[in-house]
Amino acid sequence: MQSLRNPLVTLAAGMFIVGGMHYAAPIVNLILLSFLLAMSVTPFMEWAIRKGARPGLAITVTILAVIFGGLLLSALLGVSIARMIEQLPAYQPRLVEVRNSLEAFLAGTGIDAARLFSGLKMQPERIMELASKVLSAGLGMVSLSLVIILIVVFILIEAAAHLRKLQQEGEAKGAMSRYFLFGKDVRKYLGIVSLIGLIVGVCNTILLLVLGVDFPILWGVLSFLLNFVPSFGFIISLAPPALLALLQFGWSKALIVVIGFFLINSFTDNVIKPRFMQKGLEVSFLLIVLSLVIWTWALGPMGAILGVPLTMVLSRMYREYAEAEQNRINQ
Question: How do the domains of the chain map onto residue ranges?
Fold first, then answer.
């Protein structure tokens, strides 16, 4: 009976915590996103130290890169989002033209497109209103970037102190050592995903710049962030620039954007990713789906980005706890 009670109590506690996170999502998202970014850059700081760089220098360079890179990126994103909000009304006539052309094409195949679009609530006005709300929410998140950068810097300072203690105590001693070993796989996974996301984001930005699609930096950053959402993130990151290319230039360039994004994503997934991703760091499709459903409900849209890393942390915590309990029973 006791063996059954413990998992039930753990499940009930977990549901209570997730429910609490749902109601405190704005604050929780801010903190968790800061930890995600800090854990993403920590492996590069550790790599520099292992290669012989002085710890103080590696830490200082990492922190300065976070500060200046974060401020520059926030400024670029803020300007891009503000400009796009201003230009949304200019895209609406072209969106009406695209809808009319689709209606004419579908009508030729015998489909009542007007009723279909009405049922799906795909009126241009509603689409523009939704886009404006999403962009305004993104602008609000960018306005909090200074707070996020400060939290990331303090986390890196604490991580550096922990790393020095780990080197002094040795890997077998102290709670701090167990903390660092606990997060090792998660930090390695986040570091690899961040590197691949950076490559994808830069390549997508260059492609959009060459094609002349508006706001290429915004879509490149979106590609980087959604790279943390395996399988589904690519599709979500593709939709806005492809739609914008359709509104600006027509179907031909929209198709080029789709093909270009697909080729870049396929290259990184099949060529670059296997070189870095070790066995055991891959995430199962079932875990991805469950993470998206649960964490998106709990944290809103940000939960889609944070979901897989959070699930990996909880999974590792459970394994650590199960191993400790098994060792205690065997003694």
Answer: 1-169
